[in-house]
Design brief:
single chain, about 35% helix
Length: about 130
């Protein structure tokens, strides 16, 4: 396993909220690590492709929360460009779990996880 992949895997182990991490250079091979019990490689690649397709400048791209089919866990994908002047040279992509958010909200509410997400996007739960 390349050194970069080992470092990414170590970062995943240090933060239970991270389901996957990837460094995707414009030229060259992507480096990725994931919690394989929560997300499979093909689903991770699909999520990475979705956010990278929307990237066009310096801004961070955040997907809508979705159920991760592999692990049946709610997560969202975040991508940030790595710039060299005005040129995007790579992107850093993370798939982040909502489990800790759900635990905190459910302690004070009886709403289910999908209902909480629906309310969050409708603006009825404070962000």
């Amino acid at each position: 396993m390349p050194v970069t992949d080992v470092r990414l895997q170590r970062t995943l182990q240090d933060d239970p909220n991270l389901i996957a991490l990837a460094i995707c250079p414009v030229k060259g091979e992507a480096h990725r690590a994931c919690q394989s019990d929560l997300i499979k490689r093909d689903e991770l690649d699909h999520r990475i492709g979705d956010v990278l397709a929307r990237m066009s400048g310096r801004g961070v791209i955040i997907s809508r929360p979705q159920i991760i089919r592999s692990g049946q866990e709610m997560g969202l994908t975040i991508a940030a460009p790595v710039m060299n002047g005005d040129e995007i040279v790579a992107a850093v992509v993370a798939v982040v779990s909502f489990q800790e958010v759900f635990k905190a909200v459910q302690q004070s509410s009886s709403k289910s996880a999908p209902r909480i997400i629906g309310c969050w996007f409708a603006g009825s739960v404070r962000r």
